[in-house]
Amino acid sequence: MVLHRKRLSDGLTVTQKVFVRSRNGGATKIVREHYLRNDIPCLSRACKKCINIVVPDAKNELPVFVLSESPQKLVDGRKHYVVLDANIVLQAIDLLENPACFFDVIIPQIALDEIRNVSYPIYTRLRTLCRDSNDTKRLIIFHNEFHEDTYVERQSDESINDRNDRAIRKTCAWYGEHLKSSGISTLLLTNDRGNLERAIKEGLDAKTLAQYIELLPEAEEVKDALPNLETFSSREKDVEARSEFKFPDYYSTARVMGGIKSGVLYQGSVQISEYNFLEGQVSLPNFTKPILILGQKNLNRAFNGDQVVVELLPQTEWKAPSTVVLDSEHFNVNDNPDGDENQNEREDAISDKQRRLLVQDAIQTQKSGKVQPTARIVSITRRSWRQYVGQIAPNSVDLQNGGTQNAFVILMDRSLPKIRIHTRRARELLNKRIVIAVDSWPDTYKYPLGHFVRELGEVESVEAETEALLLEHDVEYRPFSKKVLECLPVEGADWKAPEDLSDPEATAKDPLLAKRRDLRDKLICSIDPPGCVDIDDALHAKQLPNGNWEVGVHIADVTHFVKANTPLDTEGAERSTSVYLVDKRIDMLPMLLGTNLCSLKPYVDRFAFSVLWELDANANIVNVDFTKSVIKSREAFSYEQAQIRIDDPNQVDELTQGMRALLQLSIKLKQQRLDAGALNLASPEVKVHMDSETSDPGEVEVKKLLATNSLVEEFMLLANQSVARKIYEAFPQTAMLRRHAAPPATNFESLNEMLQLRKGMSISLESSKALAASLDRCVDPNDPYFNTLVRIASTRCMMAAQYFYSGAYSYADYRHYGLAVGIYTHFTSPIRRFCDVVAHRQLAAAIGYEPLDLSHRDKNKMEFLCRNMNKKHRNAQFAGRASIEYYVGQVMRNNESEETGYVIRVFHNGIVVLVPKFGVEGLIRLENLTDDEQSAEFKADEFKLSFKAKGSEKIKDVFVFDKVTVQVKSVLDPVTSKRTAQLLLR
Amino acid sequence: MVMSLTEKRYLQESLLSKPPVRPDGRNAEQFRPIEIFTDFLPTSNGSSKIVASDGTECVVSVKCKVVDHAIEKDLIVVDVDIAGRRDDSPLVQEISSILNRVLLLQTDQEQLRLTKKYSFKLYIDVLVLSSYSHPLTLISFAIYSALNCTQLPTLISSKDDLDVAELPTFHDYDMTELNIAVPIMFTLAICGQNVIVDPASSESDVASNGILVTWYNDKVAAPVRTIGLNEEYTRGINPQSLADSIQLIEALAPKVLGALDS
C-alpha cells in the first residue's frame, strides 16, 4: 500500500500509520494519522542550525541542548556520540547507569517505545537517567518518529522490528550528516547481527556493545558489567557450554491464547516451594488446590513469581507433593559452569479433547486422594526478574585462572536456580555479597545467564547483609530526594503549633486552623515500646459527670504535612510502610516529620487527629466524635514505665487515674472481642538485644507482653473500627479498609491430620469463635509450649490480611476474621503506614475538614495503591524477619548450646525443627541424623521418619510434634557462605 | 426527469423501432461511460467508488471480521443504503436481497476459510449517493472492483486448530489479497423485440420489462430473472427476449470484465 505525505502547513506534514491488531482472535486494521514536523532539534551544543528552529513547548520552555560540543574520545581519538537500539538498553541498563562510561547518548524515540513495551521498570530507569544526567552523562531522547527527515515508512514484507531498526539507522545517519561539520562522529550500537550488517553496508559506524566497550579508554573497568548474552558472536565460541540438554520450547502466542480460551491451558503465577526448588505450584481459580509442577523440564525455566501458562500432564504422571528437601545450593554442586549434561526427552502428544477430559479428572482427584494433578509450563507471560543478591559458588571458580571465566552465583533466595555469570573478577568476588542481574535463559542452557552489577561487601559484614536483605525484599532505602525534602515545612525543626488557634496571623497561613479543636487541656500521655521516637498515638481518659468515661485516642496529624499529589505523597505511597530491622529503621516519611513534627512528643504542642468516645462503665460506645486537634502530651511512657506507674498505689494524680481507667476499659474491650471470636495466634517472635556500645548483638529474648501493651492495642483497634465505619459511610465505593478472609479448610487439612494422628485433637473451622475455642483445647498437659506450637502452626495456615478499597468487595467480605470485627481499617500509625495516611484524608473529608483528593475517590487509583501497600507490607515483614534471623545467627555464633526443639515437618530425607528460644527453625538432614542412610524409613501417612540413631544400632522414630533436644550452633555453609542455624539431634 | 405522455410515447416508439434508436444515441449493447476508483478508504480492507455519466454514484467498502464458521454460516453480508430511499423501501430491499443471495450462492466461501475453526466474514457496505437509473448494474460493478482489491490480514498461526486449539494470530502489517471469483450482474431493458443494455432512466421509464442476467465464472449463471423497471408500461416478456438477452450478455460480459480488471 502506498502511503503519502501531505503537507498541512509550513513544517507540518501528515502521513498514515497502518497496522493490523490481532486481539482475541480478531484482526482489526488500524489507521492512525501521524504528524511530522521540522522543528525537532538535535540537542547538540555543537550544532549551529538547530538553535534557529526550536519552538517553546506547552510550558513555554525551550528545549535544553544537552549533548556536549566536545564529547568523549574513543581510543582512536575520535569524538563521538552513540545511538542505542532498544536491546542494548534492555540488556545493559546497568552499564548505562555506570558513571564511568556512556556519555552523550542518543536514544531514538522508537527504541524508547520498544523499551517501554518490553520492560516498564527499565523504561522508568532510563527516563530517570535522562532526566537527571544532563550535567554528567548527557542522555537525550531524539523524537525520530516525528521528525520529517528521520521518519521511515514501513515497506511491504518488512517486519516491524526491521522497520524500527531501519528507523534507528536512519536516525544515526541523520546525526552523522547533521553534525558532519563539527567533527563529531555518531556510532550505532546494536547487538543484532542483521542490523549491524545492514548498518555497515549503509556506511554507518556500527558496533556491538562489546566492540564499543573495547574502544573506550576505560574499557578494563567496565568490561565486567557487560551483560552475559547468547549473542551471535558468542554463540559459536560458546559451543562447548551447550550440549544435548534442551528445555522444551515455549508455545506460540496463538496456541496459548487459543488454549486458554478453550480451557485446556491455564494462566497463573508460579510459586516455587521453599523446601524444594524443583517443585512449583500454580494456583488456578478453576481448581480447589494449587496444581503441582515437578522437575526441571516441567518448570521450564520459570522463576519464582513469574506469570506462566501451564498445561496438565497425563494422569499417569500425577504425583504426590514431593517429600524430599532440595535446594539449588546442594543440588548438582559439582556442575561445571562451562558445561551442561544430557537428559532424555520424552514426547507425548494428546489432543485438546482429551485434555478437557483430563481437567475433569484433575478436579475430581484434587478432592480425594493424595495424588495431585501435575502440569508443565508451556509459556512464560511475564518474568519477575529483578536484581538479585547472591555470592559466587567457590567450587565453580578456577582459582588458577586469572582471566575472564564463567562462574555460578548462588542467590540468597533459595527457591531460585543458580545464575551463570561471565566475569574477570571471579577470584576477587569470592566471599563477597554481590548483586547480579539475569539477562536471558536460552533453552539450551541449564542455568540462566546473568551479569555482575556491583558488590555489597564481605559476606557476614553488617553493611553487606543489611543492604542485601533490603535489596532482596525490594525495600527502597536510598535517602529521600531533594524534591521530596522540598515539601517539608520551611521552618524545619523550628516548626511550632500556633499558641492561639484564632490568632489571625496563623489562620491567614492555614485557613483550616479554625476547624481544629484545642485539646491542650486534656491529660494526654503516650505509651510505646522503649526508645520509640516516632510516636503515632497518645491517649487520655476522663470521667464525665454522668459517670461515663470520655476516652480520646490522638493520632499524629501526618496529612497536615503530607498533602496529596506532592512528591512527598508520591514517595510515601511508593514506600507504603516503614521497615524495622534489628539495628535500623527505613522510614516511610523523612526523619523531620516522623520523629519530630508529627511525632506526638511529650511537653510540646502537636497537631493530632483525635477520636473521642463516650464509653459507659462496660466499655460500650455511647457516642463517638472525630476532630482535628492540637494536643500536648504530658508524658511519654514505655510499656514498662506505664505498668509500674499504674501498679504503684502511691500515684493518685489525675493522669494515673486516667491510665487506670483506660486499663480497666481495655480489659473489658478485650473480653468483648474474645467473646466475639477474636483469635489469639502466635508467632515465634524474638527480640535481639544489642550491645549499646559496639552494636554487637548480645542476646536473644522472646518478646514479653505486658498488660499495658494490650491497653494501647485495644484502643487502637477501637479507633480503627470507628474510623472504618465513618469513612465507609462517607465513601461507600473507595473507603480505605483492611480485611482478613476466613482461611479455606484445605489450608488446615494437613495440620489437622497431624494433630488427629499424633494427639487426637483437631481444629474446628466453622467460625473464628470455634477456631479460637478449639485452639484453646489443644493443650498437652505435659508440655505447656505445645499450645503455642499449635498456634504458630495455625498462623501459617491463615490467609494474609489485606488492604482494599470498599468497592472491591461486598460488605460481607469486609470482615476481619482474626479480630472478629465486621469492618476494619488502619488509622492509628500514619507515620509508618501509608494506609493510615489515606484513611486520615478520607476521615478529614468525611467530617468536612477539607475536600478529599480525587485520587482517593478513583477506584483504579485506589486499586493500584492497595496492591502496592499489600506488596510492600509483606516485603517489610519479610525483611524484618530476615534481619532478626541474621542477628540470631550472629548471636548463636558465639554461644553454642543445647535447646529444646519441636519437630514441625517430616520429610523423606530430613526433619524441620523449631527452636522456640531463638525463634529459629532449621532442617536436619538425614545424613546428619544417622550414619546409615539406608536404614531410614519414611512413612508419609504417619508423619514418621525412622532411622538408626548415630552411634548405635537402635532404630529411632521421629514423629511430627515430637519434643527433641537439639544442639544449636551456627555454621557457615561452605557452598553458599551463608550463616545458618545448624541443628543436630542429641 | 418527469416526461409528458407524448414524450414517453415518442421515446417508446423510437426504442421499438429496429434497430432501436436510443435517446443518447447509443447502440443496443453500448454502456454509458463510467469511472471507477478503488482502494481509497484506508480503514477498510477494500473499497471502490463508481460514477456513471448520468451522475449515479456508488461507494462500496469491504470489511472483515474473524468468526467461528460453525456458528456463523453466512460469510458474506451485503448492506445497501440508497440516498433518499428508506431502508424498507421495495427498491432497497429488492437490491439487497438479490445481492445477498447472489454473493452467498455463487461465491466460493472456501476462500474465506482461515483455519479449521475460523473464517473471515466479509461485510460489504454499499452506499448509493445518488441514482438516476436502476443502480443494480453499477452496484455490482462496484462490489466486483472492491472485492478484487480487497486485502485481508495474513494469518501467521497454524491452519490446523481442530485438535489443538489456537486463536488465529495475524501479521501486524502484511496483507494477503482476497482471491475470490465475484459474480457481476447486468440489467437489460426490453422494448418490444429489442433488448438494450444499461438503460438510462428515461429508457427504463418506457421499457416493457427488465431482465437481470448474472455472469459468473465465464458463463451466465443464476439468477436470471425479470426486474420491474416501471409501473406503467410493464407487460409479460417474450421467451425470445430472454434468449436474446443471454446471447447479448455472453458477447458483452467478457469485454466488460476486461475493462473492469484493467
TrEMBL record, chain A:
Main location: cytoplasm
Biological processes, Gene Ontology terms: CUT catabolic process; nuclear mRNA surveillance of mRNA 3'-end processing; rRNA catabolic process; rRNA processing
Cofactor field: Mg(2+)
PROSITE patterns: RIBONUCLEASE_II
Domain (PIN) ranges: 80-197
InterPro entries per UniProt: Dis3_CSD2, NA-bd_OB-fold, PIN-like_dom_sf, PIN_dom, RNase_II/R, RNase_II/R_CS, RNR_Ribonuclease, Rrp44_CSD1
Subcellular location field: Cytoplasm; Nucleus, Nucleolus
UniProt keyword annotation of Cytoplasm present: yes
Domain RNB positions: 516-849
This protein's UniProt keywords: Cytoplasm, Endonuclease, Exonuclease, Exosome, Hydrolase, Nuclease, Nucleus, RNA-binding, rRNA processing
GO molecular-function term, one example from the UniProt record: endonuclease activity
An example Gene Ontology CC term for this record: nucleolus
Pfam family, one: Rrp44_CSD1
Similarity comment: Belongs to the RNR ribonuclease family.
PANTHER family: EXOSOME COMPLEX EXONUCLEASE RRP44 (PTHR23355:SF35), RIBONUCLEASE (PTHR23355)
Name this polypeptide is given: Chromosome disjunction protein 3
UniProtKB/TrEMBL annotation, chain B:
The keyword Cytoplasm is annotated on this UniProt entry: yes
InterPro entries found in the cross-reference section: ExoRNase_PH_dom1, ExoRNase_PH_dom2_sf, Exosome_comp_Rrp42_subfam, PNPase/RNase_PH_dom_sf, Ribosomal_Su5_D2-typ_SF
Official protein name in the record: Ribosomal RNA-processing protein 42
Pfam families with a match to the protein in the record: RNase_PH (PF01138)
Localization per Swiss-Prot or TrEMBL: Cytoplasm; Nucleus, Nucleolus
Assigned protein family: Belongs to the RNase PH family.
Taxonomic path: Eukaryota, Fungi, Dikarya, Ascomycota, Saccharomycotina
Molecular function as annotated in GO: mRNA 3'-UTR AU-rich region binding
GO terms, biological process: exonucleolytic trimming to generate mature 3'-end of 5.8S rRNA from tricistronic rRNA transcript (SSU-rRNA, 5.8S rRNA, LSU-rRNA); nuclear mRNA surveillance; nuclear polyadenylation-dependent rRNA catabolic process; rRNA catabolic process; TRAMP-dependent tRNA surveillance pathway; U1 snRNA 3'-end processing; U4 snRNA 3'-end processing; U5 snRNA 3'-end processing
Keywords: Cytoplasm, Exosome
UniProt entry tagged with the keyword Cytoplasm: yes
Organism, scientific name: Lachancea meyersii CBS 8951
Gene3D superfamilies documented for this protein: GHMP Kinase, N-terminal domain (3.30.230.70)
GO CC term, one of those recorded: nuclear exosome (RNase complex)
Record domain Exoribonuclease phosphorolytic: where: 30-153
